[in-house]
Design a protein that fits this description.
The complex is a heterodimer of chains A (80) and B (144). By secondary structure, chain A is an alpha+beta fold. Chain A is 21% helix and 28% strand. The longest helix of chain A has 11 residues, at 31-41. Chain B has one domain (7-140): Alpha-Beta Complex (Aldehyde Oxidoreductase, domain 3), CATH 3.90.1170.40. Chain B starts with 6 loop residues before the first strand and ends with a strand. With 144 residues, chain B is α+β, with helices and mostly antiparallel strands. In chain B, helix 2 packs antiparallel against helix 3. Chain B has three helices and eight strands. Chain B is elongated and about 50 Å long.
Chain lengths: 80, 144
């Protein structure tokens, strides 16, 4: 299944993109497995701090991701 | 839930802030306003000075988050109205990047609400800041 992945702030400098469609196997679709696949693609993300939002809400690693969901890798917030 | 767009391209000008204040003169149940203005600081880091911050945001999530924060603040405090504006793009040192404006019949509610709002905005809104130095190198800001 396909999900959308968005990257923000410092993470864009590592992935060189702000967004991509990412294909994941349907039987391994919790957040932890998707994160592992992304870290595999961009090993330098291992040296960064981030939370992952699914459909605009920060979720933990056991969260079950569905077809078409929007994931966002969010580095530390710096508003204000 | 009603969603407002809180984002403004570039710095928030003193004129914009003055106009916001002026618009409240017709709301005569208000007895107290409290305003927070976040200004970009020219921090010196390892001998280099920050000349600007370039802000980006996960805008859809940030606007939802701001609506949530707005509702929570109205529930907690007796407020007449509340306005939040944050910059996107480049804001130079000395310019305003965050404008939070609360109004209440009474000062204590306004002051408590403002502190709660500003702290929650800083902790929970997905906004990112690239600190640009005078030599055009940069580092990424993290809220402390």
């Amino acid at each position: 299944m396909l999900v959308t992945i968005k990257y923000f702030g410092q993470l864009v400098e590592i992935t060189n993109k702000t967004q991509e469609s990412f294909s994941v196997e349907t039987d391994t679709c919790n957040l932890e497995n998707i994160e592992k696949a992304i870290l595999n693609k961009y090993p330098n993300l291992n040296n960064t701090t981030y939370n992952i939002a699914v459909n605009q809400k920060i979720e933990n690693k056991t969260f079950s991701v569905k077809e078409g969901d929007e994931l966002a890798f969010l580095p530390p917030f710096a508003g204000g | 839930m009603k969603k407002h767009n809180v984002f403004i391209e570039g710095a928030i000008t003193p004129d914009f802030i003055a106009n916001s204040i002026a618009k409240h003169q017709t709301k005569t149940t208000i007895g107290a306003h409290d305003i927070f203005l976040g200004q970009v600081r020219a921090d010196e880091i390892n001998g280099k000075t920050v000349s600007a911050i370039e802000y980006t945001a996960y805008e859809e999530m940030a606007n939802s988050k701001f609506s949530e924060i707005r509702e929570a603040t109205f529930d907690k405090f007796e407020l007449t109205c509340m306005h939040i504006y944050h910059s996107l793009g480049t804001v130079k040192a000395g310019e305003i990047c965050l404008f939070v404006f609360v109004s209440s019949p009474r000062r204590k509610e306004a002051m408590k609400a403002l502190e709660y709002l500003v702290e929650t905005i800083k902790a929970e809104s997905p906004i990112f800041g690239k600190e640009i130095f005078e030599d055009e190198t940069h580092q990424w800001k993290v809220n402390s």
